[in-house]
Amino acid sequence: MVIAILSILAAMLLPALGKGKEAARRIACNNHLRQLGLSLALYADDYDGFFPPRLSPGRWPHRLYGNFRNLQILRCPSDGLNPATQNVDTNRYPADGAPRSYLINAWNDYFQMTLTAADWQDYMQATYPRGLKQTLIPHPSETIAFGEKETTSSHYYMDFYEGNGNDVEEVEQSRHAGTGPRTRSGGSNYAFADGSVRFLKFGRSLSPINLWAVTEAGRTNYAAF
Q1: Which of the four pLDDT bands, split at 50, 70 and 90, describes residue 201?
Q2: What letter does residue 48 receive in the DSSP assignment?
Q3: Rounded to whole angstroms, how far apart are CA atoms 161 and 7?
Q4: Are 187 and 200 within 8 A, CB to CB?
Q5: CA triplet 34, 37, 42: central angle to 5 degrees?
Q6: Residue 143 · residue 225 · CB < 8 Å
Q7: Which of 71, 78, 151, 224 could disulfide-link to 25, CB 3.0 to 4.6 Å?
Q8: Rounded distance between C-alpha atoms, residue 38 and residue 191, angstroms
Q9: What is the chain's mean pLDDT, rounded?
Q10: pLDDT (tens digit, 9 = 90+) per residue, 145-158?
Q11: Collapsing DSSP states into helix, strand and coil, what is residue 144?
Q12: What is the CA radius of gyration of the chain?
């Protein structure tokens, strides 16, 4: 009888313990994104208000690494143990080669609208030398700077113009408080251009406006779901 009662109690407590552990992991993920957002702001302070350029090699983890200094910040505790990144020279670019749960906004809609055709081609080939100026974001508290990527995605940047859009194909919108990754349930954490971090339910990063877009046209034209 005692064993039966203990078994019932264990069955009742285990789901609650599991939810508690996930809540702690979600908070840690939130804090990691907050550190990345702060690192981005510090970078802009050091580079005349400009965010890191979309370059390869020397992607954003490498360029921000001096501000966060702990490679564990690049991984969300709710993600897999070894989330994908790309093969790089880890002696020169240790942060770029570290397991990574996040991608950064590449600000595609702004650059596509403002660059010449030649500069836009350089931009998409990751050779354009300049990033977005921080002050050009009209809605910083409603514009995403970092989001959680799918575990198997090796992307560094959220690009609208790859495939059907990385905002749909590469961003993990269901990492927390749902029934599992890619289930259109729960939600994920996002760092915004003003330094804030928020949890958004599935789809809220894309609708009713696309929070990855900078331009007014992009915020409505790229809205999905």
Answers
A1: very high
A2: T
A3: 53
A4: yes
A5: 125
A6: no
A7: 78
A8: 10
A9: 91
A10: 999 999 999 999 99
A11: strand
A12: 19
Neighbour order of strands in the sheet with 187-192: 157-158, 102-105, 144-148, 187-192, 197-201
Closest CA to 60 of 49, 70, 72, 74: 74
Encode burial over 67-81: b for 16+ CB neighbours within 10 A, e otherwise: bbeeeebbbbbbbee
Helices (H) and strands (E) in the chain, counts: 6, 5
Which amino acid type is present at position 175?
R
- Domain residue limits at 37: 2-221
> How far apart, in whole angstroms, are the C-alpha atoms of residue 154 and residue 166?
11
CA 26 to chain centre: 14
Token reading at 189: 């954490």
Which helix (H) or strand (E) covers residue 146, if one does?
A: strand 144-148
* 157: nearest Cα among 93, 91, 86, 210: 86
Residue 51 backbone phi and psi in degrees, to 5 = -80, 170
Distance CA 194, CA 212 (A): 13
Q: Is it the case that residue 53 has pLDDT exceeding 50?
A: yes
Q: How far apart are the first and last CA of the chain?
A: 52
Whether residue 151 contacts residue 181, with contact meaning beta carbons closer than 8 Å, is answered with yes
Q: Omega of the bond prior to 208 within 30 degrees of 0, cis?
A: yes
Q: How many domains does the chain have?
A: 1
Phi, psi of 105 (to 5 degrees): -65, 130
Distance between CA atoms of 107 and 212, rounded to whole angstroms? 8
